[in-house]
Structures are given as structure tokens and as C-alpha cells.
């Protein structure tokens, strides 16, 4: 059985999903309630998959994804209105409320990604994005606002996030 992190700000959602995944034999689950716990657990135990909600007390799941190593994949379970805000195409999404079979199917898709190990953003690109966010933060933006500004620039220019980061670093 694969190991998966189940992470939700409210522990009830996490417990329900863990129960479904473990009873079905789909995955062994580790519960987390914060983005920081997820980061630590992924790094310490090399867990390749995260099933989580849209946001934690210490930040949104999309920003958490940017901090995870390239071997780790993510499925966000949230209302469709929140999922519409997720811009990273590498993050899988499941609209809540979801049936048991929909959840199991989405987690199987997530685990298929893990097994296939498609390439994610390189360490160099992540560093470039972090430097661009840091530069934007010196102008008074929070980390989340800086990330959103990079995403908007990326979408407006029709380029990947790393290229938008290069643009910010070149012109500021």
C-alpha cells in the first residue's frame, strides 16, 4: 500500500478521508493539520502524495505545493469555487462534496502520477520563483500576494511561472 499524507485544517475531514482510503486498501495515511506539518513529514518520510484541503491556517495549499520536492504530488479536495482559484495545472482537483468512489478514483489518479513520476519544476526554477517573490515582498506584498502577482504576470504574458519570475527579476 502507498503512503499518503491527508491534510486538512479541520481534523474531521482528514479523519473521514483517511478512513475511506485505509478501509479500501488504497493507501496508508498520515494525518496533518498544517502546511508546515506537511512540509516536515514529506521531507522526513519521503511521502510522495498529499491529499488536502484548499487552505491551512499557515497558508494555501497551492503555495505549499511550490515548497514540496519534485517527487511529491498533490490532490486538493474543496468546493468548486475554491478549486477555480487554483492555477497550477500540476495539482489534481476534486470538487467537494464527493462520493466515496469519486474520492477513491481521484486518489488512484494521484498515485498513478506518483508511479509515473512526471517531471515537475526543477530546483533552479523553484529558486528563481522564490527570488522573484522575495523581490516583490520588498515592495510590501505578503508572500501570498507576491505569488499571486507572479501568477497573474504568467497568465497575462502567456508564459510559465518560472519565465514570469525571470521577467520580474530582470525588470525590477
Could you give the topology of this structure?
Blueprint: E1 2-7, H1 11-23, E2 27-32, H2 35-45, E3 49-52, E4 55-56, E5 59-60, H3 61-67, E6 73-78, H4 80-83, E7 92-95, H5 100-116, H6 123-137, H7 143-157, H8 161-171
Parallel strand pairs: 1-2, 1-3, 3-6, 6-7
Antiparallel strand pairs: 4-5
CATH superfamily of the largest domain: Response regulator
> What is the level-2 CATH architecture name of the largest domain?
3-Layer(aba) Sandwich
Helix and strand pattern: EHEHEEEHEHEHHHH
Helix content: 40-55%
The CATH topology label of the largest domain is: Rossmann fold
Number of domains: 2
Strand content: 15-25%
| CATH first level of the largest domain | Alpha Beta
Computed structural class: alpha/beta
Q: How many beta-strand runs?
A: 7
Characterize the biggest β-sheet: 5 strands, parallel
Strand sequence of the main sheet, in spatial order? 2-1-3-6-7
Amino acid at each position: 500500500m502507498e503512503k499518503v499524507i491527508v491534510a486538512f485544517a479541520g481534523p474531521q475531514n482528514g479523519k473521514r478521508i483517511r478512513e475511506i482510503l485505509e478501509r479500501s486498501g488504497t493507501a496508508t495515511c498520515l494525518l496533518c493539520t498544517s502546511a508546515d506539518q506537511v512540509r516536515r513529514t514529506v521531507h522526513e518520510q519521503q511521502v510522495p502524495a498529499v491529499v488536502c484541503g484548499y487552505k491551512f491556517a499557515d497558508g494555501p495549499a497551492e503555495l505549499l505545493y511550490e515548497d514540496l520536492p519534485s517527487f511529491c504530488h498533490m490532490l486538493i479536495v474543496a468546493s468548486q469555487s475554491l478549486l477555480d482559484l487554483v492555477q497550477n495545472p500540476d495539482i489534481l482537483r476534486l470538487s467537494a462534496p464527493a462520493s466515496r468512489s469519486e474520492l477513491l478514483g481521484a486518489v488512484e489518479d494521484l498515485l498513478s502520477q506518483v508511479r509515473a513520476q512526471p517531471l515537475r519544476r526543477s530546483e533552479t526554477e523553484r529558486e528563481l520563483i522564490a527570488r522573484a517573490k522575495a523581490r516583490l515582498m520588498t515592495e510590501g506584498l505578503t508572500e501570498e500576494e507576491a505569488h499571486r502577482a507572479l501568477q497573474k504576470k504568467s497568465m497575462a504574458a502567456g508564459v510559465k511561472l518560472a519565465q514570469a519570475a525571470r521577467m520580474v527579476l530582470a525588470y525590477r
